[in-house]
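Quick illustration for those who missed Monday's session on complexes.
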Amino acid sequence: MFFGGDYNPEQWPEDVWAQDVELMRRARVTLVTVGVFAWARLEPAPGRHDFGWLDRILDRLADAGIGVALATPTASPPPWFSLAHPEALPVDAAGVRLSHGSRDTYCASAPAYRSAARRIAAALAQRYRDHPALALWHVHNEYGTTCHCDLTAEAFRRWLRHRYGDLDTLNDAWTTAFWSQHYTDWAQVRPPRATQYLPNPTQVLDFRRFTSDELLAAYVEQRDLLRAATPGVPVTTNYVLGDWVPVDHARWAAEVDLVAIDHYPSDAGPAAEEEAAFAADLARGWARGSPGRPDWLLMETAPNLVYTADRMHTKEPGRMARNSLAAVARGSRGAMFFQWRAPRGGAELFHSALVPHAGPDSRVYREAVELGDRLARVAPAAAGVVEARVAVVYDEPSAWALRARGLPSTRLDHLDDARRAHRALWRRGITADVVGGLDDLSGYAVVVLPGHYLMADRQAAALRAFVEAGGQLVVTYLSGVADEHARIRTGGYPGALRDLLGVRVEEFHPLAVDASVKLSDGTTGDLWSETVHATGARVVASYADGVLAGRPAVTRHTVGAGTAWYVSTRLADDAYADLLHAVAADAGVGPVRPDLPPGVEVVTRRTGDRSWLFVLNHTATVCEVAASGVDLLTGAPVDGVVRVPAGGSAVVRTG
Ligand code: GLA
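Prediction with alpha-D-galactopyranose bound:
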């Protein structure tokens, strides 16, 4: 079980290190990420390395039995680098070349950056290949930087040539006949830089895909040289989710030995638990495509603070441990934090830490010590696998495409739709994977496809095969409407899925912010509605008011041995939960425990005849859940019912 976090000894005089290592030992820290932003310390001048300090701290950590996720520092090139290679600084869409002075000031397409990154990674690999502390390679930090410079433009064109072969095919895919954008020479093709009015949506989409592949290539070349030096040491990079991140993480999964995510909830209240469960299940879904499957790792989260738009919130006592156990419940190899010790200065001087500004005589450090103890106790459960027979699909290119300007509503959000589907299942205690693609639906009885806007023919075929073989598929509005080039499939929405769903949608009726529609079964929807014709499907609920009154709203269509449901509006949370619960029940899938009180999260990890029941009580009152066995956290026997205090957790070995 990994427990620890980002550790930045370079920010502290060496006399603090001894205390750090002692405090880590007391907290049973097992892994620290070292060197993430230490390039300027490691290479103070071009080609001149200073590894002495890193040798000393790695030796200390090794002596204390603490493993190191050794980072390559390539997310933050030193100032000397950008002065020597100004062409390697990133350029924004408006053509402004950014300066060093923050982090991520690099262009991934700049040869000088790429070779400097390879050199420092190779030097680290060479020096530490046999170091006893080396447990994991942590390449870079949160890949996600975008650049629009001329070097990027050249790389983008190379990528496009490879994707489309010739300009005619590109012109067709990008619909350049619209607004006279027809290209007659590759040199005319550019990244989507600032322009007069709406940009070409396919150009924007392809630029994101390109950026994802370009960053992946930068990762892979570092990974390959690390692997060559240390074949036995896994290599990873920490994923981050965000509107600004042009990374298709599902595609990256095959290239990382262990999927690792950073997760910072955007809500300080109970919604954060649902958000964290979503992130965990998404990581587990991505991990299906990675060599490390089924494990994944929560690489960073905040021990204490949650950031919302206006301020920092302090986590209440006990929440750090409960959230950590919730991640482990959902398959994480442990719980890692940003960061070990709070810095005295720098841009993130108030970000929380396991050793806060107050020092070890603090609630947070005491909770860290407790958490280390708890993680050690639950370590046997790491052998268990989280079983999920329901998949929610989250497709990053669809999310990008739905963020284009000029769509029928500015509130379309595939990530939010995927979260809603997941939340509906979470609230009913049904464990779901969130998967990043349709290539591998094996093992699932139910698949939920929320707003999967882009759909290639092979993806539609995969869904058909899933349903024909007996799967239950729930599709919501705007799925399958466009092809992979974001071109509408004509003849009626939802294009690629019309036949499978047995519906034909003639018109969209996006709803105003405060509007909702009633359905014939008493439920309501908001955001979206449409003129649906049932062309084979059975109508389950109709619109009950407004211009669509009497027309189908929710339908089901039997195809082969399975059923394809269509939901043409955004159902209210309870109605959505009821629907998914009923569909899952039809497929023989139920909650881990029935009738859980709201806010009580229960997940099982299982292997062979052994199983562990994780109970996370996010409520303010004690809860009781049926279980028998031994609570690993307390060592106490559990006979029929486990009582979990308000805000507490239990991990019952039930088999
Ligand atoms: C990210 C980064 C860290 C740090 C934290 C702050 O996840 O990886 O370096 O900036 O956010 O919350």
